[in-house]
Amino acid sequence: MFEAVSALQGASCNGIVQVREIGLQGMITLRGDLGSAAVKKAAMAATGQDMPSQRKANIEDDTGIAWMSPDELLILVPYATVDARLEALGKALEKQHHLAVDVSDARAVFELSGGPDVREVIAKLCPVDMSAGAFDSGYFRRTRMAQVPAAFWMPDGNSVRIVCFRSVAQYVFDLLKGAAAPGSAVGYLV
């Protein structure tokens, strides 16, 4: 038997914002026909959240649904509940073509917090317009963070959550740490 640990075991640093790895997060990739009533119902039952529209997420704390692509959702649940949620998804979708996979241990999750400068940190690393109105709470983006794929959302105007592959967690932490260091701004509002 083993004890699950997160990729960087809670690493954190402070700069213009705080950067921290948030620890274990349950994540299920659900692929299927997102227009199907059965898929929508199963995803909402697994999380208690409404289905998001394209490039959006409905996430509260560690539970929610994020739109990943026209046939893919990322379902976030507490880490300890992943097996039960997978079983429930399988039963609910047994007559529906789908794929539901636990990807929790293949991912790392970071949080930037501490004020509006979280937008500045992301703007330094991702080709995304981070100005208010262009990217706000409820939006979800899959993109590149420097040289690696990542996805992120803003739970509120002063924080960002980032998901990346566990294999590049140290690289992403170092990128975020460097971008959060005091220094010249990107000026995403200009």
Set down the secondary structure blueprint:
Layout: E1 12-14, E2 18-21, E3 26-32, H1 37-47, E4 57-60, E5 63-69, E6 72-77, H2 82-92, E7 98-102, E8 107-113, H3 117-125, E9 140-145, E10 148-156, E11 159-165, H4 169-179
Antiparallel strand pairs: 1-2, 2-8, 3-6, 3-7, 4-5, 5-6, 8-11, 9-10, 10-11
Helix pairs in contact: 1-2
Structure report:
It is a single chain. This protein is α+β, with helices and mostly antiparallel strands and 190 residues long. The protein is 22% helix and 34% strand. It has helices at residues 37-47, 82-92, 117-125, 169-179; strands at residues 12-14, 18-21, 26-32, 57-60, 63-69, 72-77, 98-102, 107-113, 140-145, 148-156, 159-165. Strands 1-2-8-11-10-9 form a six-stranded antiparallel sheet, covered by helices on one side. The longest helix is centred in the first third of the chain and has 11 residues, at 37-47. The radius of gyration is 17 Å and the shape is globular.
Kindly state the number of beta strands: 11
Radius of gyration based on Cα positions:
17 Å
Shape: globular
Mean pLDDT metric: 94
Distance between the termini: 54 Å
Task: Give the gist of this structure.
With 190 residues, the chain is α+β, with helices and mostly antiparallel strands. It has helices spanning 37-47, 82-92, 117-125, 169-179, and strands at residues 12-14, 18-21, 26-32, 57-60, 63-69, 72-77, 98-102, 107-113, 140-145, 148-156, 159-165.
List the defining traits of the structure above.
five-stranded antiparallel beta sheet; 4 helices; 190 residues; single chain; alpha+beta; six-stranded antiparallel beta sheet; globular; 22% helix
